[in-house]
Amino acid sequence: MALVTEERGQASSLSSLLALPFHWFMAALNAPMSFVQRRFGIGGMGVVFLAPNMLIFGVFVLIPVAINVAYSLTGGTAIFMDGRHFVGLDQYRSLLNCENYAIPSTCQEDAFWQSVHNTAFFVVVQVTVLVLAALGTALVLNREMRSRGFWRSVFFFPVLLSPVVVGLIWKWILQRDGLLNAILLDFGFERTLWLAERHWAMFWAIFVSVWAHLGFYTLILLAGLQAIPRDLYEAAMMDGTGRLRTFWRITLPLLWPNLLVVVILALIRAVQIFDEAFVLTGGGPGTSTMFITQYIYETGFAHVLRNLGLASAASILMGIVLVALTALQLAVSNRRAKKEGA
Amino acid sequence: MKGFKTLACGALALALSASTAFAATEVRIMWYSDGNEGEVLQDIVKRFEAQNSDIKVVIDNVAFGIIKDQLPVQLEAGRGPDIVRVVELKSQAKHWLDLRPHLKDAATFEKNFSNTLDWMRDDGSNALPGFMTQLTITGPLVNTTLFEQANVPVPGDKATWDEWADAARKVAKSQQIPIALAFDRSGHRFMGPAISMGAKVIGPDGKPAVIDDGFKAMAQRIADWHKDGTMPKEIWGGVAGTTYKGANDEFVNGQVAVYFSGSWQVAQFSQKIGDKFDWSAGSEPCGPAACTGMPGGAGLVAVKYTQHPKEVARVMEYLASEPVVREFSERTLFLPAHQGVAAKGVDFKSNDPNVKKSLDVFLKATQTASPLALKMQSYKWSGAIFAAVISRLGQVVAGEAKLDDAYARIDDDIKQKVAEASR
Q: How far apart are CA B117 and CA B134, in angstroms?
């Protein structure tokens, strides 16, 4: 007993020793924080604690957004504002000058509208497929099965890869002499130019994007599934409820909040699609997989004569869409929080 | 003790003043490499430093992307290295230093590089901002082994574009390779052939006037060759906008009969192909107006924001001297822009017979390039033309647009670019 007490005493003195630097740090902070508290009062301390974060947010988000807006109101090829000319809303007019928005070739900036169409198609199809695939995968991985941890890792692994790596891997698989064609030729099929045919290129852009991001959304849904109380399923089983009905009546309603988060996050990410698609298809064939972000990059940075004004205006329009989607996400989250509170 | 302290302080002051007196002026070169040219430059610079102990040359080896994306921002801010190797010479001409007042022998410098100085200075200027470290020229690269096996003669000096395409098709059919004729996806690569077909490119008012019969003749051929399978769809039609795409891998793998690219490929083809098959540069294919490739290359220029213009001029004069340019070209397998060196010929250092043969062909092509093709390098709207041409013809190849629509769009795109840049 005495030995145990002695050991505890030694451990306690060791932890006190280790805590010393922390105490010194806190003591050093005490004086300035007391001064700040006296200066701003208890009520103002929230602002003081938020200030560093707001400063970083301001420098890296708000100021760049303001600069972007300013650039979108100017013309010329100069990089800095002092060499640029104020053109008002001309850049927006150029982007929105269209006889028929459904037919990009009738627009002044046909490439912009083609990229808008491509992005809209990509978003609708990719998000639908991604959410359904993530839901299916989460349902399967939630069941008792052999090597469940291994299978979860398999689906999550692509998420760890850089988008450029994802694009390159699939490019090697899909190119003229790639792995897929080699396999097909071995089985007597004809070679297909997967990335040079318009519809196939869009198919693969969507497929690769789903493959790369599936694991992330599966993980969110898996967490939601595991939070559903098991006794609900046991009660349903005892009542003789079928699997499909259990899914519609228990799983889906209780998973709905997670599903909404997944849908909105996937939507935001899909609107921003660039890197893996750019590496995979380069926006081609023609402009059939050119998305809005690539249009902005091409217009603002890829040309010798950089059109930063037009690129900024396009990015502001894209930003408005993203803000709307984020507002939707916030509204959904608030509604959910209110419901849970009630 | 006090005496000792005084002595120590004195010694320290003396050492400091001595080190200041002998401190070499630092000249920084921002450099990117495609091959071994960074190492060759390092060797040359070491020798320069040995002969000029008052100048220390620091080579900042960077990726090409830094020169393309970050250098313009530095220059606009009035900063940057003392010397830089750059491809976009004309569009950034306002940032280059005129070395003329600082050079020992400006007349010789000017004489040696007179063909290419307009590529890096404003229109009408007689400034000497630097020199081209290498010339490049577009032209056909031929898999001669495939031609021999197919028993098809490689088209000769005056062969037309159609004859080249026919020969390439015959070889591809005979040897059952997938690509008869590949063409880099680049507006620059297209314009040489278009000039051969009679494209005038520049209007009487000096503004771009791209769409004419010569241009259309080549554009029509490109579209037809993609339709009939002579050219592979995935190069020109495979990507969007101005994105560059080449057929290097396909050529190296022996899948291409004729690859229209340029002299810069020689070193890497030698390295990658080895003795797998024989290859060589071919003569420039002809149209009714000319048999010309499109010149280009990278230049080494002095930046006007340097604090040491005299030292920079000494470094530049050394690097531009005949023996140094000769050594640089021989070891890097680059075509020299120095007219004296080019006229005397270059003994390219390579054990690969394909290299010497190809570089000799390309060197000859630089001397017979059409005046319009040479002028395009110093034409301020070249970039806008190349961008519009490739992005719109790419859409035609992909089946998104018809040629007539593409012509109208090319005109519109160029006009818009010119208007935007002229604001």
A: 13
